[in-house]
Amino acid sequence: MVIACTRDCYDTCIFDDNHKPLTLFPINGFTCYRGNMDIKRNSLNRVHRPLVDGKEVETQIAIDEVVKELKRVSPHEVLHVDYDGNQGLLTWYFPARLWYALHSATTDYSICSAEGHEAISRVYGSSFGETPENFSKYNAFVIWGSDPKTSFIHGWKLMKDKRKVVIDVRVSQTAKESDKLFLIRPSSDAFLAVGVLKVLRDRGYLNQGIDVSWEIIEDETGLRRRDVEEMAEFYLDMKPLTLIGFALGRTFQGGKAISLISTIPSVIGMKGGFFYSNSSYGIDFSYLRGKFNKPSRVVPMAEVSKEVEEGKIKFMFVWNSNPVHSLPGSDKIIEAVNEGRLFLVVHDPFMSETAKVANVVIPAPTYLEKEDVVYSYWHRLLVYNKPILPPKGIDEITLMRDIARRMEITDWSVWEDPWVAVSKATGVNVQQLKEKGIARLQDPPLREARVSIPTLERIPKGTVLVFGSHPSFTNSQFKEILKMEPTAFNNKYQGIGYVKSKWGKIKVRFVKSDDVPEGVIFMFKNQLVDLEGKPVNSIVGPEKGEMAGTPLLNFVNVEVEITHQ
Ligand SMILES: Nc1nc2c(c(=O)[nH]1)N[C@H]1C(S)=C(S)[C@@H](COP(=O)(O)OP(=O)(O)OC[C@H]3O[C@@H](n4cnc5c(=O)[nH]c(N)nc54)[C@H](O)[C@@H]3O)O[C@H]1N2
Ligand SMILES: Nc1nc2c(c(=O)[nH]1)N[C@H]1C(S)=C(S)[C@@H](COP(=O)(O)OP(=O)(O)OC[C@H]3O[C@@H](n4cnc5c(=O)[nH]c(N)nc54)[C@H](O)[C@@H]3O)O[C@H]1N2
Ligand code: SF4
Ligand SMILES: [Mo]
């Protein structure tokens, strides 16, 4: 028997029934701090009983409350917010069928990787890149807007002892253990990529006009022409694999940057040569979610809080996500609940920041407590999870069907056998998967790139707040094991004070660090509650990417005010 970690993570570690990581490639017998602490964490900070207005009630009473409120509003005023708290097909995807059958509003699922999927698909027709097996074939890597030493430990392991060049806006852990860092200004990646392509064009690899001058490239990136030439030469000499980080999709002009970066390997004649996320092939997620039932409308994740404030959303059902922590402008969600303008329901195993303010909280089992099928966005192994601990709470599908029954939803998709749905969506024989525990998904055929150089916009000037992963958390998860103060790393200020944007201000501790250049403030994306308990994302606006609407989380223009040392 095996069990896969369901956290939003490249690696999707697979464990045996003693919770030891398998020696199978690419898990290779090791895991992270969170993997090691999972069993301990499982009993901490749990939602033990359903809560209505903070009071413990029987499950049926909580569901009655949900249904009563749901009947009061129109489908277009109902929004389901679900993301990757658990990467199980039966936890995240299949339960969405209720909300599609109800024709409620849906989000655009853009918060994390959507911008890059779209950007690479515009070049290659798909965003699928190199598999872990192929990582091993490369002798050099370009790590662009990514911190794999922190966020992708098994990928990082495969890069060990290889030549590594990093492009980042601060000195990350990855940069410290690589051969070279090109430290650039926030969101200037598209200009750097165009610079590299300009060198390649001058050397005969590309036959296209590029009308961006060296003065502009140097001004925007903060690099010299010679640095850009050095990078192009690294590409030509080493034919590296480019790891394109999700962080880039959350920058200003991030979609264009990712399209351009993904083009470079093909311009120098490589087949493949990049990796972003491999979730785009082999699983029909739309079918699993029941997207054939049309939602009444799609709300960009960047604008959820804005729509809540405008009164367009009156009922929000959250599972597998912690929007008060993770969505832009999320202080508006808290305000609306407190003022009775929004009815908020949260289904979560843990008392998340969103659960703390919700009208109704329903406890969910963790991945250690339920059956599921788990995939990875890096490797191609599909895993059948069998519970290894007794269940707590009510699982997603049972909850969805309980609500469906009371809403008199007869749509077949809600009542389809989930195992039949999994087999249709993956092409995998479920019986065999259950027996063997692991199946391998097919890889898609290689695709040719369509190279085109877009017109770039100059980057608005100012100090920029950017975010990155912390090794001991996954997004908002794991705070029960490790506590950390919200900290703004920067090269000037020390003490307590405010980070201010045009959307508001947050109180944090400032820590001076040589790893962060002037013009940049760096925070871990796992500490998104300020010193006064307010969401850090209060200062993030509704601006979004032009290709897939990903919020510009890594391009928040800010000012600093120190109040005391
Ligand atoms: N330990 C751990 N692992 C995780 C996660 C976690 O929370 N903790 N989260 C998972 C999830 S949800 C995701 S999306 C991935 C994210 O993993 P990554 O793609 O690695 O993204 P981040 O960690 O957000 O940021 C990576 C780097 O991008 C840099 N950066 C920020 N802005 C810019 C820019 O404009 N240009 C360039 N070139 N660099 C920039 C940051 O300084 C940071 O060092 O990791 C996953 N893995
Ligand atoms: N400012 C800023 N904001 C960001 C980012 C940033 O870099 N900066 N990063 C963004 C990124 S990359 C991402 S991916 C998003 C992530 O944003 P979210 O989707 O909000 O991710 P988490 O914070 O991990 O919240 C997941 C929730 O799911 C719950 N959960 C876990 N397992 C289960 C389960 O089996 N069932 C149910 N019902 N619930 C479960 C967890 O307890 C947790 O409360 O945040 C984004 N927000
Ligand atoms: S969080 Fe990532 S590295 Fe850690 S156990 Fe889970 S899949 Fe493995
Ligand atoms: Mo993410």
TrEMBL record:
**Keyword Magnesium applies:** no
Using the record's annotation, list all stretches that form the Molybdopterin oxidoreductase domain.
119-393
- Signal peptide: which range, if any? none
Which Pfam family, just one, is annotated for this protein?
Molybdopterin
What keywords sit in the KW lines? Iron, Iron-sulfur, Metal-binding
Which GO terms fall under molecular function for this chain's record?
A: iron-sulfur cluster binding; metal ion binding; oxidoreductase activity
**Top-level taxon of origin:** Archaea
Cross-referenced PANTHER family: OXIDOREDUCTASE YYAE-RELATED (PTHR43742:SF6), TRIMETHYLAMINE-N-OXIDE REDUCTASE (PTHR43742)
| Protein name as catalogued | Molybdopterin-dependent oxidoreductase
- Which organism was this protein described from? Sulfuracidifex metallicus DSM 6482 = JCM 9184
